[in-house]
């Protein structure tokens, strides 16, 4: 993006955004939950293997971790559905906050609503995205 294009984007008024967390923010939360799911799964496998030779507390710990895993999977599913629903709502309003979704729409900063990528322009790299978000 050239300096001129950057100034033109910065001078635009922020878009009217949907209330609540953006699809970008919901997707980030989903990634965090996914990391917990992987961690709970690994601990569960280790406890299950260890429960064959370890005392009763290891079996109890396995079932506690299994419950946390099931709850995390449920939360992950809910966040995924909510992020996709929010992305559709954003598209109906004429913008997107996702990093690589709906290239035909302008990409807005998830926090401020300021346009950081024009409609049809190539997707921003993560570095460009962070840089565009930190500019005020």
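^ structure tokens above, recovered residues below v
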């Amino acid at each position: 993006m050239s300096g001129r294009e950057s100034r033109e984007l910065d001078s635009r008024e922020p878009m009217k955004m949907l209330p609540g967390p953006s699809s970008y923010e919901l997707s980030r939360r989903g990634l965090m939950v996914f990391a917990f799911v992987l961690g709970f799964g690994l601990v569960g496998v280790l406890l299950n293997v260890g429960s064959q030779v370890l005392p009763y507390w290891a079996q109890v710990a396995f079932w506690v971790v299994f419950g946390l895993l099931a709850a995390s999977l449920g939360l992950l599913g809910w966040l995924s559905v909510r992020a996709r629903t929010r992305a559709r709502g954003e598209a109906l309003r004429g913008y997107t906050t996702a990093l690589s979704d709906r290239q035909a729409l302008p990409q807005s900063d998830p926090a401020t609503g300021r346009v950081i990528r024009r409609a049809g322009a190539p997707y921003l790299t993560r570095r460009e995205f962070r840089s565009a978000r930190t500019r005020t």
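The first strand starts at residue 107 and ends at 108.
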